């Protein structure tokens, strides 16, 4: 992942104007914040190949020109621009239709996503302070962990700026979906490209809840299979961290997941009906204000929250157990901004 992003507050001024428009659905601009990092570089590579993107704007605190030069040699139609350091952040996001944020520090062996909080919380806060002023209409997809807390941080920043729209801020949980679909197809011998497994809750530990009963095409699981597969999905990030032995966390699979979610937002901007899971402000589950469920996406972001649907008693137990953990994560994020 990218190096920490320094505070943008010192470079923001009263003269920074509010830009309330996006480019267009026909010539969309996508900004990647943290573009030089372990997730940002492969994410940029995948997005450069997306035919829906007209302008790929890359931002980081270091090394952005080199990444941009490299990607600009790829023969696709997306124009690439490089922006380095807080003074160039506003230009990076101005007019953006979609903003993807992988900026932050990665996990190392023995660390939880929550251990990343102090550094990554400040990064997301500072980036969102600029986005809220310069690109308040953008669809913002947050990858930076811990997502359960960084999304509430973003929301609080947008509220303070007076530009919050709950339809437009997402925590990217697509990696949990991708992993679930890969693991289920391995176990059951299904076509991985056609296997769909919704994942609800959050994006850490017990808050990651794969709804195996809703797998499509329909497959059957024994209870022992469910009880073995569920924790593997929940702990899959740690599996990668340990396998990399201190060299980083999930970067390639996360880049794919981020690109897939960004593409879903772009297709929704064009008016296509798209359903994806993501962590958003939601009343889908009683007792918690943020929750990931399948969402119907449209030109303005979340058009409809589809909820968890029909779940098994085992899945309901997991949902119930996730609520207090999510509330703790959410409160930590809110407190970080409100002080």
Automatic annotation (TrEMBL):
UniProt cross-references to CDD domains, sorted A to Z: MDH_glyoxysomal_mitochondrial
Subunit structure: Homodimer.
Catalytic activity annotation: (S)-malate + NAD(+) = oxaloacetate + NADH + H(+)
Signal peptide start and end residues: none
PROSITE patterns found in the cross-reference section: MDH (PS00068)
Residue ranges of domain Lactate/malate dehydrogenase C-terminal in the record: 173-337
Name by which UniProt lists this protein: Malate dehydrogenase
Family: Belongs to the LDH/MDH superfamily. MDH type 1 family.
Taxonomic path: Eukaryota, Metazoa, Ecdysozoa, Nematoda, Chromadorea
Organism of this sequence: Mesorhabditis belari
Protein EC: 1.1.1.37
Residue ranges constituting the Lactate/malate dehydrogenase N-terminal domain according to the UniProt record: 29-171
GO biological process: malate metabolic process; tricarboxylic acid cycle
Cellular component terms (Gene Ontology): mitochondrion
Keyword Metal-binding: no
